[in-house]
Hints:
This protein is 82% helix and 0% strand. It is an all-alpha fold.
Amino acid sequence: MRLGRVHALIACGEASFAIALADSLFLSIDPDAARSKVLLFLAISLAPFAVVAPFIGPIIDRVPGGRRFTVFLVNFLRCITVLLMISRLDSMTLFPLAFISLVLSRTYAVSKTALVPTLVPNEQELVAANGKLGLLAGIIGFIASVPALLLQLIDSRATLVMSAAMFGLASFASLQLPRHVATASKIISLIKTKDLQGSLVRHAAISMMLLRGVVGFLFFHVAFWLRDERAGTAWFGLALGLSSLATMFANGISPLIRRVMSERAMVTVSLAIISLTGIISGVVGGITAGIILIAVANAMSSIGRLAFESIVQRETPEANRARMFVKFETRNQLVWVSSGLVAVVCTFPGAVGFAIVGIACATGLIYFLLLKK
């Protein structure tokens, strides 16, 4: 898939970008950071969606060849933005540039997800295609982190140069993507958009919001809990590392899971596994249980996300696909931020937080099982 080549280059750019700004508020959370700074991070992480939601989605859908052109333009602008950041690492202008980069990153994510259905031979391949892109990004990002870290030892600016180069190459590679023109009429699009309120999409959307909320809550709960337990940042780093590996594993096995169950079942099973793991972790308690839970939650959330994306990609009219993904992603990010806010403001003992996760997913699971009947 030609999109895979573009996505791999972007993964390299993202990895080197994150490493170059590893100490930035925008890209990392230090478990020892003040809660006020974490709250600011949560606000900043939501802000790009406020920009993307009302403008980018409709533009991508309406412009002929809009998704292909958007991928090109976004990566070209990210290249320029990163180059501007090179001389501004110690300046306040770094913050608006980092914000612009976040907006561009979210815009690409929407365009990429909207493009996938136009590049696969049939609807049954949607989960596999989404999973391959996720797995590719994880592997390439990990590989790219090696030279990026070596450059970081020399100078952060050198790492930013690498990032800018990757985004520049991605912009030119995107020109080889096939053109896509949304031809559905406005009347048909409105009718089909109304149909999206059906049970399948509604079930998947609400489930995905719950999964994202659980991941957001666990991230900040585990971070502050480990700090309070004096376990050190090494334990938190281990939790994040295992979570990344679990996410890559989930992306790899999702196509196999799709062969034996529907997307709806994938989302439901994800909730069930997190619920069971959360309740057990709440009973057992301890650092090991917490690390296992956050890894399982990230893996199941990835499987649920791939199923959710496949459902929306299949059920959404082409003329509205980008704006629908923006709509759902904005909701999901709002839930992620809100759940993280709860974990930051309220200090729960480790086992209590784990039990909350288990009970929340169990409640959602029971609701959807009853709804199905």
